[in-house]
Amino acid sequence: MKREPVVRRRKGQMLVFEQVLMFTIGVTIMIMAFALFTMYQNYYTSSTASDQMTEVKEYVLSSIIKACENRDANVTMILTIPKTVSNSFYKISLSNAGLNVTLEPSSGSGDFSPLYGLNETFVFSGMAISDLGKVVVYKNGNLVSLDRRVV
Q: What's the per-residue H, E or C state across the chain?
């Protein structure tokens, strides 16, 4: 007696199921890798922006301190600064409280520094946006101001 071959449909279904499962796992791994790299990119971008704002703040602050060293002289300093930090313009504000550098539009991130006791002798004011790539420090008597316009 001759036996007829048994058709196994389950094997074909299992093959399709395995392929669909492998595809789904591959897509999941790609999405997780993309999310992980995006997270790292955002972290390093914000860290770089913070470091760059600190560098700008220290540069402007050291120039202000240098201008205040000689009390009797009137000083005008034109400082060249980067136009952007992390592809964003930033604002430099000077007041008796201190020097503040913040990203524009205001994102809440910024860097602040006190004036190391200079506000007891001098009066500080002014604000500049980085879009021109220059900031001017004026010292006239005991008045120290920050501006973006070059005279």
A: CCCCCCCCHHHHHHHHHHHHHHHHHHHHHHHHHHHHHHHHHHHHHHHHHHHHHHHHHHHHHHHHHHHHCCCCCCEEEEEECCCCECCECEEEEEECCEEEEEECCCCCCEEEECCCCHHHCCEEEEEEEHHHCEEEEEEECCEEEEECCCC
Please count the other Cβ atoms lying within 10 Å of the Cβ belonging to residue 49. Answer: 20
Confidence of residue 148 (pLDDT cuts 50, 70, 90): confident
Q: Which two tokens stand for residue 61?
A: 């602050």
Q: How confident is the model at residue 68 (pLDDT cuts 50, 70, 90)?
A: very high
| pTM over 0.85, yes/no | no
- CA dist 100 and 150 (Å) reads 21
